[in-house]
Amino acid sequence: MVPLAGETYFSQKPTGSPPLPGNDGWRSGGGKKRGDSSRARGQSAAIIVLLTLFLSLIFPSGLLAELPVSRVAKVCPAPDQNLTFSYTAVPLYQFGSKVDGGGSLSVFTLIFSAGVKKQENEQLKAGLDFTYIYDGYSFSGMTGFRVPYPWSAIHTFGLDVPLIYFVTQDCTWKIYLVPTGQFSGESTATFGDALVYGGSFGVSHVFSPKVELGIGLAGYYNLAQATFFPYPIVKIKISDRIQITNPFGASPAGPGGGVLNYKLTQHWSVGLGGAYRSYRFRLDHNGPIPGGIGQYRSCPVFATLGYQQSPAFRAEIYAGATLWNKIYIDDHGGDELLRTKQNAAPMLGFSASGAF
């Protein structure tokens, strides 16, 4: 499904698998592996191009040249002996919409993440993040498909080790490194077959106190499939009220996306955002597709209304839709068996987050 806050999201064919013929809605994959990386790369490139065009049109004089270099110098964070703890909790509901071939699908998602970070010295910040995601898929009325309920509840347990290294003495160049490991699958999926691992590496430059831009590359071994994609690093403060950021970091689910926030008052803000998400998970080894792989792709677009009392607490309401939804089923070794599409679906969610 679609995490909307700080998310951090990993042979042989089984014997006795039931035949899974296609029909008017579901198409057979012909036993070929599907490449996620090209689509993800295209989405990331589109985000970067649109962002560049947006900035060049709105700010022809250039935010990058707004301040002299002397104003940018020495932005290194001070070492801190204290730990910083953070948390995020997100319930999210994607309403049901029609699936090609008959029936409908709705998804309820619950996300919980907790992390700890420490500024070790002026040049190194290190952390540890844990994420749990529950996705409840509700298929209904799919009489045209031989397996009307291909999966139901998906559990994702993730562990990240985010590292930020300030390369130069003035700390205007940064390196981001995030090793990642996770379990993603149904509760009775074979543990070793449901592991995802990899990481992301990015470089950014602080052009001014208002602008940090960069690019990274993420790579993961994602359930019988290796995926690679670039992702943007964007932190732009257009004014005291307007800023552009990534809504969540790169993960096995895809690039970080982008969101435009507008501060209404000291505590209230609104925003518009979007991203590309692709969730891949291992299925029950005793289910209708034994040990297979499910995949759900979507492009969420959303508006937000946020309230922040202090750094320790921020609440947001999300409303939007998921577009270009696609459902895939692969066999145990990652060869595509079936695919279908789902109509655009409204979504509504809430998040509570903070750091202390």
TrEMBL record:
It comes from the Bacteria. The chain crosses the membrane at residues 44-65. The keyword Transmembrane applies. Residues 1-38 are annotated as: Disordered. Keywords: Membrane, Transmembrane, Transmembrane helix. This is Uncharacterized protein.
